[in-house]
Amino acid sequence: MHIAVIMDGNGRWATKRGLPRTAGHVEGAKAVRNTVETAARADVDTLTLYAFSAANWSRPPTEIAALMKLFGQYLFGETRRCVEQGIRVNVIGRRDRLSDNLLRSIEQSERLSASCTGMHLRLAVDYSSQYSILQAAQRAGQPAGHGDIATQDFERLLQEVDHSARDAGPVDLLIRTGNERRLSDFLLWECAYAELYFSDCLWPDFDETEFHRALEDYAGRQRRFGGLGDKSAKSATSGELP
Ligand code: IPE
Ligand code: IPE
Ligand code: MG
Questions:
Q1: What is the 3-state composition of the chain as percent helix, strand, coil, each rounded to the nearest 5?
Q2: Does the CB atom of residue 67 touch ligand 1 within 6 A?
Q3: 8 an active-site residue?
């Protein structure tokens, strides 16, 4: 099963407490740690977390710097724990606008966890789904590329463009916290048949109970994929619930 999460509401969490927005991001990083462990225990195959969108570059430089620093710290501090749990770490999104330091941390995390066969953790940084789709479409249209491109071939190109370590497949469940109901340019292709779950909870408050609440809600959904509701088609990827 592939779960994707739009981790939203850090700023509001902090503002409500009279704290600077960056304090919300620090607390949000703790929720990331917990969610990764909860998902791995729940036998999720792939977890894709939206950490920084391409549109987030429009935020104040100090907030961007704090987010990038936290991201580097997360990779530095968590990679070993991930490897111990068999979690393969992979960063998707653009790499050409990240600092050299961060790039080194990303490459190190990916290298150290490359042979892990448990959950595939994908952290989306400087990610824009529209950008990825456009890049893949351009590659598909190149002279040496395919004429009539099959969906699978296009998905392979998308995987390359995104630096995804392996085919993550379609998203089964998309969770968005922070009481917003939009996709904000996240995994537009992959969410074609995703079940959507919106939580009012602000991301730093998202815990194991909230995660299981989302899973329970998902378990009650009937996925039809345009058909008439064959119960055996519960999950697009594995055919099973976690
Ligand atoms: C999500 O929280 C984290 C990132 C976008 C990096 P926000 O920072 O968007 O928090 P709100 O939506 O302003 O509360
Ligand atoms: C989406 O949250 C991006 C991440 C969670 C990383 P935003 O807070 O940036 O989304 P909008 O601007 O409200 O759509
Ligand atoms: Mg937000």
A1: 45, 15, 40
A2: yes
A3: yes
